[in-house]
Amino acid sequence: MRWQSLFERTPAAAFAVILFLSSMYCLLAYIPTTYYAFIQAPFQSWMPLFARLQPYLFTLTFCGAAFALRGRFGNASTRGIVLEFWFIGALASAYLIWERPVQHLRSDSLSFLWAVAFLFPVICLGLLDYVACLEHLKSPASAPRRVSYLRVIFAACFVSVLYPAASCLRLTIAGMPVAVTRTNLVAWAWAAITQLLLFFFVFSVVEFTSRLADRAANPATVRFVAYTFLSWLGLAVCLAKVVLAAIPFAGTEAVIYACWFSLAGVMLASGWVLRRRVQHQERPPISPEPLKPFVAKAAEAVWLLLMLVAAVTVPAVIGAMDWNLVLEKTWAITLWGLAAFLIVYRGPRQSRPRRAWPLALTALLAVLGFHAENSWAHRLSARDLDMDSVLRQHAALDASYAAASAIITSTNEVPCNEHCLFLAQHTNIPATASVDLHDVDLVENLRPAAGPRPNIFILVVDSLRQDYLSPYNPAVSFTPSIADFAAESVVFRNAFTRYSGTTLSEPSIWSGMLQLHKHYVQPFHKVNGLEKLIRVDGYQELVTVDTVLRVLLQPGPELTPLDEKADKWTDVDFCSTAAEAGEQIAHRKDPAQPIFLYTQPQNIHIVTLGKTARLRPAKKKYSPFADYYASELERLDGCFGGFVHTLKDQGLYDNSIVILTADHGEALQKIGGERHAFSLKPEVIRVPLIVHVPRSIRQSWYYDPDLIAFNTDIAATLYELLGHGPVIARPEFGRPLFTRTAAEMQKYSQESYMIASSYGPLYGLLYDNGKKLFTENERAEEFFDFGQDPNALHSVLTEELRKKGEAQLETDIQRIAELYGYRYQPPTVLNWLMR
């Protein structure tokens, strides 16, 4: 019987794995932000391979599962379900092989429907076990044992202490010890209480449900169904409020998918558990010999030690990845399950049944505790301790608390007001949303420039931090070539990006203006300021056409793609790009034709560093800088110096505009928290901006290197320097970094400048020439004064600043919508299906 059950489950499990992977792949395609990050530009090589092989993997595993289920056909109760499973699975296999829809997914509603459809066979597999076995489940002779609340307390404390302690240990090993202060200890204790309340609530609800089931006619059946329901509900809440919300993916579709995905997983797992229990009922009872107390304690200690090792090592691996917070929170929830299993359920339990009302009261007190915590946090924040900021800082260190907080606050969050709805309506706009796009130009009349045109070389280093370059930080010694370049160029010391994340930052550099929060407005050439400029002035184009520019640029006879040999976007290495560009420049047909070069190397992107750290480990210590990042940056610096020498050797450098910048920075040297994808911290929004111009321009044009500047100002600057000005002065446009007079520069001055995340509803405003920052997302609003708090650790938000920031953001976002011709339309089912 055991081998027969294993023979059935193995093919079914393989089929279920393929179905879950297929569903998650389709969901990533449906969400606009993840479509470009994971589907169109996958940094994991197995993802496109899986998409190509998915029809065959589906068919192969389906045939195995169908053959293994042939014995169920003889059971009258399951015959109909087996027939439907065979018939639908066979049709699906033929269709998937013929049409290959997974390989050609787009960010539309069809992808979501596929994501849901792939979960249906999993539910059928679980339903087979329920139909065949549920009515045969019998109550055991002895009453079920009750969990020990002492062990629940121990499990909660173990997790709440273990996770942040492991983070502190990793920071200490990395040479960045966490200072133990009263504030840190208060936050740690607060996080421990939060997780203790959550554990108490969960176990109280489970025990209360079991106590009620004892009163049923068939307690075993009622208890099993109730446990299945609670498992489904808990998994759905964790998936919707923690995992999907961190992508971010929210709203009705997120709730539907979380419920459906959880139902599939719970039905499959509980069906197997149910079948095993029924099979065990048919065997003669076997009383296993109890372990000796010493052996039992030793085994428990070993399990706890293994969990401790996993708590230290797994987040260390996750922390070096992009989109890391999603994985860190998922791992934290997994750690809860391990703690519950190893500490609570594997240990001795109470045999004496509890009354139902104390269990219900315990659950109620836990809920009241959640509300009391929230109330006290606001009271303390109103006094001398900014508890909200302190807890957010601790959450960056403790993903377990971050996950628990997300679950708990989901029950008492403030309803979305008009401002919140406005942000949601103008963020992550669906790819197929109607946009009445017209030509938008940075200048009034764009005509070919008169006279000679300088060469233009733009190097946008993905994830390059400002403070890792010696022109901005005298403590840096590993970028000598960039230092030499800066010495003969203009270093804009107060430079920022408009967007954290590449997918909107790179288009904003090319367009020279703020973007509609949509991937992407089409046809993009109507707003592509750089492309218009170089086409009208007849430049020879050498461009690394990466996964973003592949969607944005028009093909043309003058366009020569670079880095075409790169298999993935993470393979774009400036060292090879510089060598290829040097060859192209040396052998160009018309030496008199000006050159335009644009490349966005990935040498120091966090995903690339995960690979290069193994291929080219750092040969020395760069303390206090991150070794893996600084080592690759030093290599890039050498290649950049070689490229500058190539330009000088070919007599091009003195007649060229050479720009070194970044699309955004990176949150390095952190345990927990987000990388650049969902952060507007100073290390992410500050970028280098170094501009070399011909000597004649530096001597005769006005510039102020201390004024606030953005990488979106590059296009406007080129328009001005090439004689196409004046650039139109409006808040959505970049400004020229060089003007004829100081008075001309003054007309582009603004009180505030909007910035945002490329991937979610996270917005900010820079005030006072970049010295102050207001940020806002769904969970919190903050205000930082970089003069007093350069690392943006302590919010000094007041109600007046909040209202001012919200009003200004709405104004700026509305202007962007009007610029691009977007008007929000309330969603309907028909519109969603048409999407």
Task: List strands and helices in order, with pairings.
Elements: H1 2-30, H2 32-40, H3 46-68, H4 76-99, H5 109-117, H6 120-133, H7 149-173, H8 182-213, H9 219-243, H10 252-281, H11 293-318, H12 324-345, H13 356-381, H14 387-397, H15 399-409, H16 418-425, E1 455-460, H17 480-487, E2 490-491, E3 495-496, E4 499-500, H18 502-511, H19 529-536, E5 540-544, H20 549-552, E6 559-562, H21 574-586, E7 595-599, H22 606-615, H23 627-649, E8 656-661, H24 682-685, E9 689-692, H25 695-700, E10 709-710, H26 713-721, H27 742-746, E11 752-757, E12 763-767, E13 772-776, E14 781-785, H28 799-820, H29 829-834
What does this structure look like?
- There is one protein chain.
- The protein has 835 residues and is α/β, with parallel strands linked by helices.
- Helices cover 54% and strands 7% of the residues.
- It has 29 helices and 14 strands.
- The chain has a 7-stranded mixed sheet with strand order 2-9-8-1-7-5-6, with helices on one face.
- Helix 20 links the parallel strand 5 and strand 6.
- The longest helix has 32 residues.
- It is globular, with a radius of gyration of 30 Å.
